[in-house]
Amino acid sequence: MLNVKALKRHFAEQLKALKFGADFACAKLSGEYPVKFFGVRYSSAAYLECERVQAPVGERCARCDEPIAENDDGWLIPYLGTAADPRELAYHRACHLRGIVGSVAHQQGRCSCFVPGSIFEDDPALTARQAAEAAEAYFEAHLNGPLN
Ligand SMILES: [Zn+2]
Ligand SMILES: [Zn+2]
Question: Residue ranges of the domains in the chain?
Answer without folding.
Answer: 4-143
